[in-house]
Amino acid sequence: MMLNKFERQKAILTKRPIRLLSRFMDSLRAALKSSFFTIILFSLLGCSQHRADQAYVGVPGGDTSSVDSLVQGLRYIREHPAEREDERVQRFLWLDQWIQSLDESNRLTPEMGREFFLDFNSFVKDPSLGRASLETIVSRAETKLGRNVANYELYLNILKDQSIESALSYVRSIEDDGISDLHFRAQQLLNLQSNRALSESRRIGVLIPFKGEFQAYGRQVMNAVQVASNLAYSDGVEFLFRDAGETEDELLESFQKLVLEDKVAGIIGPISSAASEFVFERAQIMGVPVVSLAPRENLEMYGPYSFRSTLSLEDQIEALAKLIREKMRAKRVGILYPDSRYGWDASKIAERAFDERGVQIRQFQIYPEGATDFKNELKRMTRLDYPKLRVAELCPKRDQSADEEADRPANPNCVESLNDLPPILDFEVLLVPDFADTVGLMLPTLPFLKIYGLQVVGLSGLNSMKLVERGQQHAEGVIFTDSFDVDSASVQNRLFLEKYEELAQEKPSKLAAEAFDVSMIFVSLMRKASGATTRDQIFSGLRNLYNFPGVTGEIYADQGQLRKRARLFIVRDGKIKSFQ
Asked: How does pLDDT run across 393-416, given as a tens digit for each residue?
């Protein structure tokens, strides 16, 4: 039974519903109701008593020959993910032995196998187990499925850091297990590797969706690449478009056509994260440089042939840190961030980047992803959450018999009621790494809580008029980062805008601008080669790129990856403008 990688990743990274577990347990118990099968199973476990007596780290104790121990163990390990590597390895081997027993008794159903396969993947991924732990699993696992999962993860780990041949040695060990698609994928990878060739070419492939939910984005990329292709500067360079499709099979077919038939020297795209990671893995095997247009920050790069064109969190937060310290002359920051991967990543990067600039983070506060009410979080940041702890700030009760001088409060800033307590701000700048619609809802809460004079800053997610529509006048002065300034007066920007609007009958998006820049980078590298260009020449050119003047800013290579200097924008008079 083949499993689609997109579906598998979604299942691995999200907690499966309890009803799925219950349905699986019902089918397992039904299979075990047969007295004949029960006798066989317990006989097998009895013959392998040395296994049943082993203690497994991170798995509940009990009689491992009992069916209930499998049910209990599976429920426990799914509801309590392990962090320590040794626990994850032991859980893997514990489940592997159960699979072996079920398989030997001819009671391993396809549904059970699919569930076990997802469990195996959750044990070895996110974060990936180390090489030593994975090799332990390979040496001790009794099932082909268990060994295959560990071997494939070893291949992915080594592909990022070492030679392709070393990585593929693990792929060659993958066998047909009758459950997963790992053997099929292994054969695909080996076939790709056998066709690897350093052919010369003046063609660039473009992998974008022609249909489906991302079709509109694909059209923006196509328009931008066509604008680049139509320039006289691009004469002699051919761009070939292929449909990224909606399934792995369609994506693989288009990738193979570009690489094996069209013999492109490099690839632009895809635009989705999952598709980009799928292509990255295979591009590394084929030695084809790929520049993804996917916006997600933490893509699995799978080796040096993988690049991304979007503005990174590091670049954005570094620009904010420089702004806060050098232009604002501020030293204290508060961070209010969503409980999401994006929010956590941004807060971690900010902690390091601000510290390097001498900026102190005085407050961290997290709110639920998609929140619409921020009063409690902002109260905690400004010490308004427990007013009873601030009774010392109340004015003393007035004595009617005392004279006016004696009745004057010792603290001129005292308040009559706890409801009148002012916020206490020990930071000058508030960073909110979220998107425009959410931050727009948060902004009116500041004056509601009497929080004034606080500079709000954010990232590229704020570059939308939704910030102004929801924040209204409270959005005035908000500063954020991004890469593409549609109002820039630079020569290349005006040229791109003119040609794009002429072709597409609309203004270009940031995605279109990034696609145009990547196209022009490829053209520039081919012109420098003065003729047909090999993939290795393009690869070397990308890794050594220096201050390429793109419409999204200067683009340069740093430690093998493309980076760009973030631009600053501000809301002024209800409009988004460049901030100098």
From this structure: 777 776 555 555 555 556 777 776
DSSP string, 511-549: HHHHHHHHHHHHHHHHHHHTS-EEHHHHHHHHHT---EE
| pLDDT band, residue 37 (cuts 50/70/90) | very low
Element housing 576 (H / E): strand 575-578
Angle at the Cα of 292 (from 290 to 294), degrees rounded to 5? 165
Residue 199: predicted pLDDT: 65
Return the ∠ at Cα 88 (arms to 177 and 68), rounded to 5°: 75
Cα–Cα dist 76/73, whole Å: 5
Yes or no: domain 197-309+488-555 corresponds to CATH 3.40.50.2300: yes
Q: What is the pTM of this model?
A: 0.71
**How many Å apart are CA 438 and CA 564, to the nearest integer?**
26
CATH of domain 314-384+423-482: 3.40.50.2300
Q: Say how far apart CA 224 and CA 463 lie, in whole Å.
A: 20
14-29 average pLDDT score: 47
- Quick: pLDDT tens for 205-243: 999 999 988 999 999 999 999 999 999 888 889 999 999
Cα(133)–Cα(309) distance, integer angstroms: 34
Percent helix, strand, coil in the chain, to 5, is 50, 15, 35
Decide: 117 and 145 in contact? Cβ < 8 Å.
yes
- Residue 180 per-residue DSSP state: S
Spatial CA neighbour of 186 closest among 2, 398, 457: 2
Q: Report the DSSP pairing between strands 479-482 and 553-558.
A: unpaired
Say if residue 336 is exposed, middle or buried (CB neighbours under 10 Å; 0-12, 13-18, 19+). Answer: buried
